[in-house]
Amino acid sequence: MKIRILYLMLLWVPVFLSGQDKKAARFAKTITQEDLRERLTVLASDSLEGRDTGSRGQKMAADYIAKHFESIGLEAPVEGSYFQKFPLVKGTWNKIYVRKGDVIKENLTDFLYYSRSETSGEEFIELAFLGENLEYNDGDLKGKYLVMTNKSWGAWDKNIEKLKRHNPAGFFIVSNDESEFEFALSRFQNYFSRPIIKPEIDRTGDKIIITSTKLISWIFEKSYTEISEGDQAKVIFNADMLVENIGSENVLGFLKGTDKPEELVVITSHFDHIGVSNGEIYNGADDDGSGTVTVMELAEAFTIATKKKNGPKRSILFMCVSGEEKGLLGSAYYTSNPVFPLENTVTNLNLDMVGRVDDKHLETPDYIYIIGPDKLSQDLHQLSERINENTVNLEFDYTYNDENDPNRFYYRSDHYNFAKNNIPIIFYFNGTHADYHKPTDTIEKINFEVMKKRADLIFYTAWEIANREERIKLD
Ligand SMILES: [Zn+2]
User: Fold this and answer.
1) 429 C-alpha to center of ligand 1: Å?
2) Residue 415 DSSP one-character state
3) Does the pLDDT at position 17 exceed 50?
4) How far is the centre of ligand 1, averaged over its atoms, from the C-alpha of 263 (Å)?
5) What is the pTM of this model?
6) What is the mean pLDDT of the chain?
7) pLDDT tens digits for 22-48?
8) How far does residue 41's CA lie from ligand 1's centre (Å)?
9) Phi/psi of residue 253, each to 5°?
10) What's the 413 CA to ligand 1 centre distance in angstroms?
């Protein structure tokens, strides 16, 4: 027994007392609650106007991060710049209407244009009435707008999929309950009026119009119940946008490794948020101001280590991306246009919301949700566990790592673009809260004490990945 215990201790002790961890601890100290708070005060301030992708506030945030990278001595790796620019357009709806002669029926009143695809000006469209009969197969439906009666809101997207076999140009989804249609209008009006920010404007996507029987009767010139399957009608439809090229940028700072400079660890956060809506600023202190200021502090700790001749063996790329809230655009652009080869990218650590405590952990705030390491690499998973136990010892909550978890967070932040390219990742996340994507996600609600502990954990983990002999192994 004794020998066995001793043997186990031998396995355990060297890790705990390893020179690496001790060294790392010296530099983890440079990350402080005060610094985190000071930076977040800037990034989550009203003057940055919610950092909407492509907006003035987002660009101010990018400058702030780049200046920090420069001041601590990170290299500017994009042909001498800290910015990786990527194309982006902003489409603001101009006019959306259905017209017959001089009579015009308007979007957001008579119907709700659900799609994000524009027409090329006024188009003559042909409608073919199917009603409830989705099996209707007579005649050529190609290029027409199919009119179907909607029996349940949950089902129409499935019905659309089914009807795509006809290659139609679009769909009218008709609610035969007027109050149901009114509800849909009030619920989605705001959302569908907002500008669209995308890499490029789409003119080929499905065109879906949600409406009530009134509009359809007007188009077909008879009462809804008298319209028969296969009946056709023509009308003019217009859905056009004012398109502006806005462009956006990721901010990259590079620290060259001492022994294996060609291999690199990428540490990411997104610094964009959702801007201003109805006059209210969405400060995004937690989402993802918290991750971004943590990346800034991690970068500083590693550059201090480098100045003290303790720089990491592998290189580290600190990258704050934008366009996350519009669909992971910045990280998608980076992984399609990588500045350093993806084959040499050993791991991505992604921080998205690390400054709050969710309801589940109010009594036990020293926790973090860990998502993703075991999906591609048991090696990374074990390293992450071991480093935590030997250093900060937070509670690792794996609830959201479950494949069956309905939130599917693994697919919802920037690490996923790295995982898609077979790069092992860890996603650090504090969970959701009542202020998620609300104007109330403000700095007062940040818990800097636990945020600092999480920063330490990520620092130690990055340190180990960058310094240990073997690179992280894929399963
Ligand atoms: Zn986020």
Assistant:
1) 9
2) H
3) no
4) 27
5) 0.83
6) 93
7) 889 999 999 999 999 999 999 999 999
8) 18
9) -130, 135
10) 7
Give me the domains of the chain, ranges plus CATH numbers.
18-88+246-467 (3.40.630.10), 94-242 (3.50.30.30)
**How far is ligand 1, taken at its centre, from the CA of residue 285, in Å?**
10
CA of 182 to the centre of ligand 1 (A): 32
Beta-carbon contacts of residue 195 (< 8 Å; ≥ 6 apart)? 90, 91, 92, 93
Read out DSSP for 207-253?
EEEEEEHHHHHHHHTS-GGGPPTT-EEEEEEEEEEEEEE--EEEEEE
Q: 437 φ, ψ to 5°?
A: 55, 40
User: In this predicted structure, what is the pLDDT of residue 204?
Assistant: 80
Give whole-number Cα distances, 465 to 8, 30, 228, 379, in Å. Answer: 24, 20, 67, 10
If you measure from the C-alpha of residue 352 to the centroid of ligand 1, how many angstroms do you get, rounded to a whole number? 5
Question: Ligand 1 mean position to 318 CA, how many Å?
Answer: 17
Closest by CA position to 264, among listed 28, 48, 467, 24: 467
Structure tokens at 37: 């708070």
pLDDT 10s digits, 291-308: 999 999 999 999 999 999
